[in-house]
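Because discrete structure vocabularies remain unfamiliar, it helps to consider an illustrative case, giving the amino acid sequence and backbone structure tokens:
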Amino acid sequence: MATTLAQIRAKLQEQENKMSGTSMGSDNGIFAHWNMPEGTTTRVRFLPDANPKNSFFWLEKFTIKLPFIGVKGQSDSKTVYVQVPCMEMWNETCPILTEVRPWFKDPSMEEMGRKYWKKKSYLFQAFVRENPVQDDKQPENPIRRLVISPQIFNLVKNAILDPELENMPTDYEAGLDFNIKKTSKGGYADYSTSSWSRKESALTQGEREALEKYGLFNLADFLPKKPSAEEVKIIKEMFEASVNGELYDVERWASYFKPVGLNTSGSKTNSAKDSYDEDDTPVVKASVKSTVTKPVVAEVADESDSPFVPEQKATPSVSAKPAQRAEDILAMIRSRQKA
């Protein structure tokens, strides 16, 4: 027990140091590989999850972005996005996807369905052995977290499925580095040429010392907080309002989920914290009074997890206006609620 002011201060400093090593976004722990210049390569060495119950060295993350045409009470506000966790991340029913899945059966509603479909990413931890990101701020703990897109993840997974692979890529003695290569295709960032190194290598003495000093992360600590039953109801309410073209209502929802960059007080939860923004695409944290600038180079959208991907995308009916489709969708939602 701390009995003196000096001991209390030392204890508080110890707790602060521990928090800085695992906090979300405060320690530069996320390595933003998407900021690497086009035509360059980042070389990383993936590490195991600290959780022995996790059979993989990664975790899946599902989020959904809800667009709103503006913020209620802000006459000059622009489009804002509220990012919420998808309940399927915890193997539970997602109220949004329950409504969205049938939309893909109608070609005129498929585009709307993709807008509200879950965005999948994968959380890893690794040593960054070759770093072309010029403005990257190297944290004291060199073990970084990476949020990887499905495009890159499929390349990672293919090596695991290769019968000729003898050792786990995360093996400390005979593991493999992974080379993230950034190019562009059709105006979008493309990572399809990323690949595993062919030569095995052992961790360096410095990397081993870092593991001894800091330890591995429990990746689950960096996933979004699981919403409560009340928060799930709020998510569904915001979804319906978004589809209906309503403004984001600070009084109704800011205590639960809010757009990035919107400052409010009296929040009941911190569900809008940075953990929902650790995406694998450039995120523009704009205030409600500024215009959200589209990145010059964004990442190719992944459609592999969509419930319905036709061989040829049908052209939406010209007679089906967006507003009418939204009304039809909301009518479907309300009819289900009454059933």
